[in-house]
Amino acid sequence: MSAIRPSRESDVPEIAAIYAHHVLSGTGTFETTPPTLDEMVARRADVLSKGFPYIVMESEGRVVGYAYCQWFKPRPAYRFAAEDSIYMHPDAAGKGLGKVLLAELVRQAEAAGLRKLIAVIGDSANAGSIGVHSALGFTPVGKIQSCGWKFGRWLDIVMMEKAIGDGDTAPPASEQ
Q1: Does the reported pTM lie above 0.90?
Q2: Greatest alpha-carbon span in the chain
Q3: Which long-range contacts (CB under 8 A, 24 or more apart) does 47-55 make?
């Protein structure tokens, strides 16, 4: 049985191990060196300082996936748009758990007042990430070809978006 909950600082070693696996063996992230534990602690704290969700999926007492969102761009006009990130432990991949985790992230992002989620998916061959985002209503908005170099080859990024909450149908409450 899996449960989704807010992340805790004590989860960061497991989160960092999951991410290190993706950095070293996957193309979903264009980082080439896994961040240190201190850097991962700082990244999590930065997300939380903005009031954005940083959640984990736990199964049998261990973290099997994590997801968060972070400003798409740091300028004030972008404050209602965030980029989502989701990473699963290799043992949890392909079981539908990522869809459940991403659905909860979308729900929490909307509750935090965001209006747009943007997926910047590393590698246009990343069928798993493209598929889970599509299944949750993200739509493709473009592909940037050959913008990353990793594992001796050029990689694309796929951009997808999802309006949440009121989307662009009304101004934010703070602007009314």
Answers
A1: yes
A2: 51
A3: 51/112, 51/113, 52/82, 52/109, 52/112, 52/114, 53/6, 53/105, 53/108, 53/109, 53/112, 54/6, 54/7, 55/4, 55/5, 55/6, 55/7, 55/101, 55/104, 55/105, 55/108
* Residue 171's pLDDT band (cuts 50, 70, 90): confident
Which tens digits make up the pLDDT trace of 23-82?
999 999 999 999 999 999 999 999 999 999 999 999 999 999 999 999 999 899 999 999
Cα 47 from chain centroid (whole Å) = 11
Place of tokens 């049998």: 60
For residue 35, what is the DSSP state?
P
4: nearest Cα among 76, 67, 55, 61: 55
Q: Do the beta carbons of residue 44 and residue 12 sit within 8 Å? A: yes
